[in-house]
Amino acid sequence: MEICFGKKGEWTTVTVHGRIDTISAPDFEKSLGEQMMQGSTRFLIDLGKCDYISSAGLRCILTSGKNAKARGGELACCGLSGMVKQVFDISGFGSLLRVYDSPDDAVKE
């Protein structure tokens, strides 16, 4: 897994390349925590280049979203496709978090 951080409007963008699974999920959560410690509170997780997410990955997204909310921010996702979209749909995650088609759509809102 590779994580790239950027900015898009008020959002800190988090682009994930590869897999968020049991092995990589702790690193993912730690990276988001470090960004929060540096003052970021609004996160847009771009999963367009993520080809797999496990329940451990979903748990990290949920935990990070709760942490962002506790700091007055939020966490949203975008770019869902293929298996990652199926996992979000089946798990009901789409009703727990805001999901956008693209980073540009999140910035418009």
Tags for this model:
109 residues; alpha/beta; five-stranded mixed sheet; 4 helices; 41% helix
Task: Please sum up the structure shown.
With 109 residues, the chain is an alpha/beta fold.
Structural commentary:
The chain is α/β, with parallel strands linked by helices. The protein is built from 4 helices and 5 strands. Strands 1-2-3-4-5 form a 5-stranded mixed sheet.
Biggest sheet, open or closed, and with what strands and sense? 5 strands, mixed
**SS class:** alpha/beta
Rg, alpha carbons: 12 Å
Gross morphology is globular
- The helicity comes to 40-55%
Q: Give me the side-by-side strand order of the main sheet.
A: 1-2-3-4-5
Distance between the termini: 29 Å
Instruction: Give the DSSP E fraction (strand runs of 2 or more residues).
Output: 25-35%
- Would you tell me the overall average pLDDT? 94
Secondary structure: elements and pairs:
Blueprint: E1 2-8, E2 11-20, H1 25-37, E3 42-53, H2 55-70, E4 74-78, H3 82-91, E5 98-100, H4 103-108
Parallel strand pairs: 2-3, 3-4, 4-5
Antiparallel strand pairs: 1-2
Helix pairs in contact: 1-2
